[in-house]
Amino acid sequence: MNKALVAAAIVGSLLVMPSVASADCGTSPGQICQGTNLAGQNLSGQNLAGSIFQNANLSGANLANANLQGAVFEGSNLSGATLTGANLAGATFDAGTSLNGANATSSQAQGAVMVGDLTNSNWSSANLQGAILYGANLSGVTFSGANETGCIGCG
């Protein structure tokens, strides 16, 4: 059992999950990473499916080919991050999350919800089928060759 993942305490109908220490974030799926600084880290190929990143700094991080399926990003900074070939299917990036200048070429982002800052990000050849970008800042975004079938708010 991963000591960093502590059993959830149930208080009434409220599920309380402890956050994971910075040193333990970015290594396995289903983690809650609050205020974690992973700026510039090499997380390529990591399985981080279902993880929750709250106010995390992943600016300049290498997340190429990482599995971020169903991950949630709240108020997080992914500016300049490399997400090429990453599995972002069903991931959520809230209005406070920045993907400014991120490279998500050839990523799999079907069904993802991205309503934050996507300024100058690159989604060339990405699968954005069924994604929701409504309300996102799309200034300077590249969608060249992307599958935008059913995408709400795509370029």
Task: Describe the structure in your own words.
- This protein is mainly beta and 155 residues long.
- The chain has one domain (22-155): E3 ubiquitin-protein ligase SopA (Pectate Lyase C-like, 3 Solenoid).
- 0% of the residues lie in helices and 12% in strands.
- The protein contains no helices and seven strands.
- The chain has strands spanning 9-11, 14-16, 32-34, 52-54, 72-74, 92-93, 113-114.
- Strands 3-4-5-6-7 form a five-stranded parallel beta sheet, with no helix packed on it.
- A hairpin with a 2-residue loop joins β1 (9-11) and β2.
Index terms:
155 residues, mainly beta, Pectate Lyase C-like, five-stranded parallel sheet, two-stranded antiparallel ribbon, 0% helix, globular, disordered N terminus
Write the layout of secondary structure elements.
Blueprint: E1 9-11, E2 14-16, E3 32-34, E4 52-54, E5 72-74, E6 92-93, E7 113-114
Parallel strand pairs: 3-4, 4-5, 5-6, 6-7
Antiparallel strand pairs: 1-2
Task: Write out the strand line-up for the largest beta sheet, numbering strands in chain order.
Answer: 3-4-5-6-7
Strand element count: 7
Helix content: under 10%
* Structural class determined from secondary elements: mainly beta
Low-confidence stretches: 1-22
Distance between the termini: 44 Å
Give a quick account of the main beta sheet: strands, pairing sense, barrel closure. Answer: 5 strands, parallel
How would you spell out the order of helices and strands? EEEEEEE
Assign the CATH architecture.
Answer: 3 Solenoid
